[in-house]
């Protein structure tokens, strides 16, 4: 699996893995910080817009009933240099004196 545990990356991460189906174990589930970022297809997935700080990627084999049966791989990476989130400020309002 790539990236490797301890890697320092930018706000873009390409996750790569190898998987060979065997019997009912026919796909993987992928998680970023415990959440599913979307269905993984093929052997890689690109994630962008990651925030600074640690993030954990976890990949685990699943069977035809979507039961996670292992084996699994995980890595915790640190994102550095991501742009700060931007939030538009509301337009100032004219105040009235009462």
UniProtKB/TrEMBL annotation:
It comes from the Bacteria. Residues 69-98 are annotated as: Disordered. This is Fibronectin type-III domain-containing protein.
């Amino acid at each position: 699996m790539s990236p490797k545990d301890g890697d320092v990356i930018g706000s873009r991460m390409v996750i790569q893995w190898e998987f060979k189906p065997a019997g009912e174990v026919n796909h993987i589930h992928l998680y970023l910080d415990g959440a599913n970022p979307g269905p993984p297809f093929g052997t890689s997935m690109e994630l962008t817009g990651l925030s600074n700080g640690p993030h954990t990627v976890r990949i685990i084999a699943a069977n035809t009933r979507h039961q996670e049966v292992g084996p699994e791989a995980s890595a915790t990476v640190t994102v550095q240099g991501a742009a700060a989130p931007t939030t538009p400020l509301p337009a100032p309002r004219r105040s009235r004196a009462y």
